[in-house]
Amino acid sequence: ADIPVGTMIEVPSAAIMAAELAREVDFFSIGTNDLIQYTLAADRTNELVADLYQPADPAVLRLIQAVVDAARTHGTEVNVCGEMSGDPLFTPLLVGMGLRQLSLAPNNLPAVKAVVRRLGVADAERIAAEALTLESARDVTNYLLRERKRIHPEAAGGGDE
Asked: HEC profile for 58-113?
């Protein structure tokens, strides 16, 4: 009876129904790899459409924010997993959206920790609020790259600005 029960949020329909699901479970785990793939109808392993797989797409970000908001409203824990959670470019955005538990590969831990150590919650919230107003994945990515240079200049080499 004391074992927490949760659900994966990996498809848009689950994200849309997050408020209802939150009443039934103790936690959500947002699986970004599948959520991105199914939201954008772009299989990241299919070379014909892989370039359409964009973690920074506003549709994906809005679904993640809706899940976080539903979890917060209902007192449901929420964490995020998948490649997006281990990418330090997205760390300020995810923290700013209210995520406090990131599941990532051990080799990504030093870079993500370096960003977290340089980031205040208020700053992360500002970054997320701005990113959520942008209209394209390119705009979001470029904005996050600019913010990365500001937050962690020594890690900001490269990029498509």
From this structure: HHHHHHHHHHHHHHHHHCCEEEEECHHHHCCCCHHHHHHCCCCCECCCHHHHHHHH
- Pair of tokens at residue 151: 């937050």
CA 95 to chain CA centroid, nearest Å: 8
* Size of the chain, expressed as the number of residues it contains: 161
Quick one: pLDDT at residue 5?
95
Q: How far apart are CA 65 and CA 108, in angstroms?
A: 23
Interstrand relation of 77-81 and 27-31 (parallel, antiparallel or unpaired): parallel
- Mark the ranges of the chain whose per-residue pLDDT is less than 50: 158-161
Phi then psi for residue 6, to 5 deg, are -135, 180
Separation of alpha carbons 144 and 16, rounded Å: 25
- pLDDT, tens only, 82-121: 999 999 999 999 999 999 999 999 999 999 999 999 999 9
Q: What is the DSSP letter of 161?
A: -
Name which of 81, 61, 69, 96 is nearest 7 in CA terms: 81
Q: Look at residue 154 in the predicted model and tell me its pLDDT.
A: 76
